[in-house]
Write a structure and sequence with these properties.
The chain has 644 residues and is α+β, with helices and mostly antiparallel strands. The protein contains 22 helices and 20 strands. It has four domains: 178 residues, Porin chaperone SurA, peptide-binding domain (Triger factor/SurA peptide-binding fold); 137 residues, no CATH class; 103 residues, Chitinase A, domain 3 (Roll), CATH 3.10.50; 103 residues, Chitinase A, domain 3 (Roll), CATH 3.10.50.40. The protein is globular.
Length: 644
């Protein structure tokens, strides 16, 4: 087992690295590979990759993980329609296929994980440590809550490490040349200014003629656009999840179990407290000036090492006036809060130690470590009030659910929700009619309920569902089928639809006509509907991927705009954003300043390009492995990923 692991304190760096690993394992592997298996679990094959099986259990766990990820991301907007568009089945199985392919690639490349590497990796995971040291009891306890045996977890860890090693081996040959760095700099810093004319659909409303005949013709051709969807109303009993109060008692064992099941919520990130003295250097300073600044920093460091008070030195010499007044003190900060060079030096220090002179984009720093907080988890005693409150709420919800389930079981045959409400000491509430897919009035857009409402029979008492922190016992009170209304009932909506459609058509027609006139040699002022409509974006770079100033995000425009030249300034097509069409031309180019590429900036760009190229190489190799692999899906998986 892991008896050979030496219980020694890990370095701060190792703790941080494996904090990321445990976050991955607790949040991903336990979910993807299944929370342990009993002999009775189904092991039916969902897919086979070059002869290696992916079980339905693994597929279901992968699906649940991805589904929960999107549910947290979208919240109430995560409807069945959104889930269908995301094709979660395809994502889930592709994820598992890629894992199999990477493990097989590791074998092909001769990549292995030694017992020593496995032991070291597991021992370094903070979730398995007490006071910074591996603790076998904590290890088995954490795995026990996940219904995993140590040998099962170790097998999963080994497979994860094999995948990581395979990725590294695939990406190992990637390099970045100086020319690529220079090109990246140019692409990031070259800026352009566009001149544009907007043709807004709304401005053409006066040109649209409406009458009854046109309305009836449009309605006849687009009846389904005005169809009223199926509607239902609910009768329900709500048990509020916070209704138990502080009188609900918890045992010490219940508190401890809740704490251990939610360890990640009580994580402490590695932090360091530091003070610094900054000798500011202008990024455009010449070599002689930089050398003088470094010399000053070295002299200050020498004084600090010779016993001069660091706080007084900071007040006298530091160009960071904000911290200088506090003796250079910056307080505690985690990884990612400071520029990389400063962070690397600060986290390498022990309390009281001084750094060497550190160069960042701001200048030269002398750093003094004032304290450290190692990565790990808050002890139960530190967060007991928080744990008790959360555990009490969880227990309350469970008890309320059991209470609602008892009322449901007693009254399910009669379907009498009034009787169920009386048994619960609650009252029956009613919703108005609502459409399929719409939030339920007074309840919200909870998928747990929405997915069942329109398939449930009218008047039948349904099993309780959890909605947020509340428990609902419910039944369908009324059902109304979908129907197409009479033209006169929706005439206003028909007119709105005609106007919306025709104004968009006119806006596009006028924009295309203006573009042809510009190509023929006319000026922007000659073709604009009004001269004051001509606009400018102002200077922007290729980094404006999420929206060009004043134009927004328009498919293809960013790439097309940076292909325009002084000799060919006019974009050769009309661009659309919503109901507005744009004619665009280049007005100004501001080349990147070659003097602005500093040594530190160059290295940062090199790393960015390296990461991008590595990702591209990895994805390319995975694509090749997929194309070469013999992948066989079960019929049900094949139907689900094809959306059938």
């Amino acid at each position: 087992m892991l008896d050979l692991i030496r219980k020694k304190q890990k370095t701060a760096l190792v703790q941080v690295v494996f904090w990321v690993i445990i976050a991955t394992f607790i949040g991903t592997i336990f979910l993807v590979w299944g929370k342990g298996r009993s002999q009775n679990d189904r092991m039916t094959v969902a897919a086979r990759v070059n002869g290696d099986d992916i079980t339905y259990d693994e597929f279901k766990s992968s699906y649940d993980y991805i589904n929960n990820f999107y549910r947290r991301m979208y919240g109430e907007r995560f409807t069945p329609e959104v889930a269908k568009q995301l094709n979660l089945d395809r994502q889930a199985i592709n994820r598992l296929v890629d894992m199999k392919l990477l493990i097989q690639e590791a074998d092909r490349l001769g990549v292995t994980v030694t017992r020593e590497e496995l032991v070291k990796a597991i021992a370094s995971i903070p979730a398995f440590q007490v006071d910074g040291k591996f603790d076998k009891q904590r290890y088995t306890t954490v795995l026990g809550y996940q219904r995993l045996k140590p040998e099962e977890f170790e097998a999963m860890e080994r497979q994860q490490m094999l995948q990581d090693k395979a990725r590294q081996a695939i990406m190992a040959s990637v390099t970045v040349s100086d020319d690529e760095v220079a090109e990246e700099y140019r692409n990031a810093n070259e800026k352009i200014n566009l001149e544009f004319i907007p043709f807004v659909a709304e401005s053409f409303v006066s040109k649209v003629i409406l009458n009854r005949k046109k309305g009836e013709e449009y309605f006849a051709a687009h009846k389904d656009d005005f169809r009223v969807p199926p509607q239902r109303s609910l009768a329900y009993v709500k048990l509020a999840g916070d209704s138990c109060g502080d009188e609900l008692q918890l045992t010490d064992d219940e508190i401890a179990r809740y704490y251990n099941r939610h360890l990640s919520q009580y994580a402490v990130k590695e932090q360091v407290a530091a003070a610094h003295i900054l000798v500011l250097v202008d990024p455009k300073a010449d070599k002689e000036t930089v050398a003088k600044k470094r010399q000053l920093a070295e002299e200050i460091l020498k004084k600090a090492k010779n016993g001069a008070d660091f706080a007084e030195l900071a007040k006298k010499y530091s160009d960071d006036k904000g911290s200088a007044a506090k003796g250079g003190y910056l307080g505690y900060f985690p990884h990612g809060a400071m520029v990389p060079a400063f962070e690397k030096a600060a986290f390498a220090l022990r309390a009281g130690e001084l750094s060497d002179v550190v160069r960042s984009r701001f200048g030269f720093h002398i750093i003094q470590c004032k304290g450290r907080i190692d990565a790990g988890f808050k002890e139960l005693d530190q967060v007991k009030d928080q744990v008790v409150a959360a555990a009490r709420k969880e227990k309350c919800e469970r008890l309320l659910y059991e209470k609602a389930m008892d009322a449901y079981n007693i009254n399910r045959k009669s379907g009498d929700i009034e009787a169920a409400a009386k048994a619960l000491g609650a009252k029956v509430e009613h919703t108005p009619l609502f459409a399929n897919g719409a939030p339920i009035p007074g309840i919200g857009g909870t998928p747990a309920l929405l997915n069942k409402v329109f398939s449930a029979p009218v008047g039948k008492l349904m099993a309780p569902v959890k909605v947020g922190h509340d428990i609902l016992l419910w039944s369908v009170a009324e059902s109304k089928d979908s129907y197409i209304p009479a033209y006169d009932d929706v005439r206003a909506k028909v007119d709105e639809a005609i106007i919306a459609k025709r104004t968009v058509e006119l806006a596009e027609e006028y924009a295309k006509k203006a573009l042809e006139q510009l190509k023929a040699g006319k000026r922007m002022a000659d073709v604009a509907p009004e001269k004051n409509l001509i606009g400018e974006t102002g200077l922007f770079s290729r980094a404006a991927r999420f929206g060009i100033p004043k134009l927004g995000r328009i498919d293809g425009l960013l790439e097309d705009a940076f292909a325009l030249t002084v000799k060919k300034p006019l974009a050769d097509k009309v661009y659309r954003n919503g109901d507005t069409f744009y004619v665009v031309r280049l007005k100004q180019i501001k080349p990147a300043d070659p003097q602005g590429l500093t040594e530190e900036g160059s290295e940062k760009l090199r790393q960015q390009v390296l990461q991008r190229k590595r990702s591209e190489v990895l994805q390319k190799r995975l694509k090749e492995l997929r194309e070469q692999a013999d992948i066989v899906y079960s019929p049900s998986i094949l139907r689900s990923i094809e959306g059938k």
